[in-house]
Predict the 3D structure of the following.
Amino acid sequence: MSAHKTSAWPLAGAYTALVVYASLYPFSGWRDQEIAPWEFLFAGWPRYWTWFDIGANVVGYMPLGFLLALSFLRRGNVRRFAGHPNVGAVAVAVLAGAALSLAMETLQNYLPSRVASNVDFGLNVAGTLLGASVAAGLELVGAISRWSRFRARWFIPESRGALVLLALWPFALLFPAAVPLGLGQVLERLEAGIADWLQDTPFLEWLPVRDIELQPLVPAAELLCVALGAFIPCLLGYCILRTVGRRAIFAVVALAVGIGVTALSAALSWGPSHAWAWLSVAVRMGLAFGFVLSLLMLPVPRRGCAAVLLLALVVHLSVLNQASASAYFTDTLQAWEQGRFIRFHGLAQWLGWIWPYVALVYVLLRVSRPEAPPTIPQ
């Protein structure tokens, strides 16, 4: 039995939350149509449909099927369901995906902006089956075992939480950020949301009143936020990597991924011709400074990296949340939230908001418990 706990379970849980969010957004206007909630199962082919809708329903559930099947395969507790563990893992994953899709389609009966569809349900099940089959196929050819051996060589046993956070980090960067690599800027929206929620109540007066409005970051503060935004995932990786050489490789890969995903986000927001428009002088200097900091931390022990990571997260969130978004950036958010990105904005937006705070909690928990000396696998 491997000493490493699988990261597929928490990733499957996070993806399930995404499916629920994307299926029921915007969670308002609930009403009863006075029809049986399962009536959609017996409806005919929808009059209006697009190939994009078909592809989105299939592709949207493929990662769920893949992660669920991988979770059952890694846990090794599906033999009771079938003679071969791969068949059992695929069967359980498809049943779980079908149950989730059925629940989502049923609940959509009560949302005015959603239409329950038996076609969507069938496509979701097909996507789950495809994703689960890919996981089973990779296991058959030995790819899952090779990944397990790679993980054992590169990472310490207690690495699941950090690996999940690192796997989610690129997706968090997809949602447009006011500052490149600047995740966790929630103060302005949080204050506005609480004020709207407390409107016409005596508790509204409890909110603090600002003497001045939040202002955009000056170039020096932007440089610092970009540098820390690149530095933080590198430190998180250092907390679980075994050797200095592997840390160096990881730092280069992490920085390349951060730059590439930020460029993709800009291309989705403003068009491919503006994919690199965010690379101002301050941003380029911030990326270089973050990379230098990452190189300086290469020989520092894991517990020291965790302590510096805590400091970096606190400073990054503090500086970033003292700034407001520009009007141009606000228009970009509206394009994501109300336009063609509405199917995807829930995942990236929420990840961009909460990722650094979850990382902060994870590191706090990690440094608060004693760390056993790691063993190098033979």
